[in-house]
Amino acid sequence: MSRIGRLPVDIPEGVDVKVKGSNVRVKGPKGVLQHTFPASMDIKHESNQISVSRPSDLKHHKALHGMTRALIANMVNGVNTGYEKILEINGVGYRAEINGKNLVLHVGYSHPVEFEPPEGIEFDWDNRTRQIKISGYDKQVVGHVAADIRKTRPPEPYKGKGIKYLDERIRRKAGKAAKV
Domains along the chain? Predict the structure, then answer.
């Protein structure tokens, strides 16, 4: 049996979960998330726990079992506490600013690059530490927005300039050897 899939998901106070067949709706203080899971997975809501079971030991069902449980746990955690990703800007003249709700990046192009946050996403810019904080209640959307922002100017290996995740390590290259 799946080690992840067999664990029940605890529902904290303030979070409301509705299960109708394979459709799960989670409502909490941060927002509302809804997802339709494969019909073969059996999702049960008992008191303040959600459990997921699979119909057979086929490889396909084993994979869906753990994934379904993990996605439900991410939904419950997201509407309760939320998720955040932190990006760091490195480079001379590279900067960001918040314009209303939008994030405006000045990262070496002839024009500023502007990002409009999707629903449930907030941007925060700290000028002192040069960090962009992306926060929201949907883990997938937070990660996708962070990846899109990083994609505008990925870090390069020679000087390390660009936008990188806070915990990301950039493998540096030596560059050209001097002529003797």
Answer: 9-80 (3.90.930.12), 83-165 (3.90.930.12)
Task: Return the H-helix or E-strand segment holding 79.
Answer: helix 59-80
Q: For the segment 130-159, what is each residue's pLDDT rounded down to a tens digit?
A: 999 999 999 999 999 999 999 999 999 999
**Residue 177 one-letter amino acid:** A
- Give residue 116's identity as a one-letter amino acid code: E
Residues facing 9 on adjacent strands: 50
The single-letter code of the amino acid at 13 is: E
Distance CA 170, CA 17 (A): 41
Give me the DSSP letters along 106-167. ESSSSS-EEEPPPTTEEEEEETTTTEEEEEES-HHHHHHHHHHHHHHSPPPTTT--EEEETT
pLDDT tens readout for residues 113-132: 999 999 999 999 999 999 99
